[in-house]
Amino acid sequence: MIPLNDQQKQLIFDYCFGLTSELENAQIQELIFSNEQAARIAQAIKAALSPLDLLTPKQCPEELAEGTIWRAKQTMRTSQLRLTELITAEQSRKPSAGERLWRGLFGRLATAAIFVIVGSALITGGRLASNYAHQRYWQTKCAANLGGLFTSLSNYQNDNDGQLPSIAAPPGSPWYRIGDQGSENVSNTRRMWLLAKHGYAQPEDFICPANRIQKVFPANPEQLNDFPDRTFVSYSFRIRCPKSAPTDFGKRVVISDLNPLFEKIIPTPTGFMIILNNDMLTKNSPNHAGRGQNVLFCDGSVQFVRSRHVDVSMDDIFTLQDISCYEGVELPATETDAFLAP
Hints:
Elements: H1 6-16, H2 22-34, H3 36-49, H4 62-92, H5 97-159, H6 190-197, E1 235-238, E2 253-257, E3 274-275, E4 293-297, E5 302-305, E6 309-310, E7 315-316, E8 325-326, E9 340-341
Antiparallel strand pairs: 1-2, 1-9, 2-4, 3-8, 4-5, 6-7
């Protein structure tokens, strides 16, 4: 094993803090995967930073945002009407000569104050409304994107005797090693990559529009066995129960926004380990700032949900039942145990 130089160590440090470019990210991920020293350094830094994950900001409930915007608008409307009444009443009164002198001065000051107050209210209310509309816009764009992937799945199924994309993987195979282009099937994303590989979908269709990531997509996706790396896919796909046939029925979730538990996995030659805590059990997908996630059901419908408990059994779609420690090889024990990863 060749020792790391200072520049490589610095890049690993910057990578763990999210300070590297997309090109550097790919290089560092390859280095971490192939070099044990790099993997140990990255794991040590991530372990030191892990307590910071508990400091996630609390998101404002949508109903509160809607109510605040409505009250801001009502206050502005009421204030404007009252101001109009006062101005009309004042203008209808005939002032004395002395009053006219002072009215000019105080009138200008009052007008300036009114502009400041009304302008401040407009800016505050406008920001709230703009932020809410902005988030709704990206949720809708994401839902449309998932609808397009359902069309791609349907077309693939029609051309393959009713079979959905699938790959053969022996028991115990990892499902997290996205970007590995070897002959072994070591990620759950490979079967979905078949849609891009065979022209049923475009590679960029697998990135949530809310992420707005600028990527250089492969010119010849048919030559790859999987997505180039983790940054080229921001959705999570259902991991099937090995006892069930590769078909979908009922109101089952097929694809969702990114699973927050495995967002920052650093794959190493020896694997990884994640032990769940209470915070992890309540996190929503990072795609929409933790407000919730879009989920695509096997009937083609898409729904934005603020709870992770969906599917026919109202199961947590980001974890497996009765499993709190993950090493990237776990599988559902039953078809009703919905699990979308990585």
